[in-house]
Amino acid sequence: xxxxxxxxxxxxxxxxxxxxxxxxxxxxxxxxxxxxxxxxxxxxxxxxxxxxxxxxxxxxxxxxxxxxxxxxxxxxxxxxxxxxxxxxxxxxxxxxxxxxxxxxxxxxxxxxxxxxxxxxxxxxxxxxxxxxx
Length: 133
Prior knowledge:
Blueprint: H1 17-37, E1 61-65, E2 71-73, E3 76-78, H2 80-91, E4 98-103, H3 109-120, E5 127-130
Parallel strand pairs: 1-4, 4-5
Antiparallel strand pairs: 1-2, 2-3
């Protein structure tokens, strides 16, 4: 193996310094953006309570939704079209605008979301709670 000391040949090595600089900048950008993109809902998980035998107190409004999409406000049947009007009449004079939703496990997500949208529209309901069975 002999070496040519005086020979000047073009170098074939690639210069990776600019590539490393770009990668470090990208890593920093992703590290800064990632916490900003995380979104979610604040949820309060209820503590396990002992079941009461008297049912809900009379001042609580409960919206029951059955698997077929039928609804009732405190066991009084209501249709999806009349839901907003009925909730508006109920909450017009109430200072606390809290609604509890008792949806059956087999109820479709779409039905529950539509009912919640109607309840929240026009300031009828401010707080929604879910009844867990």
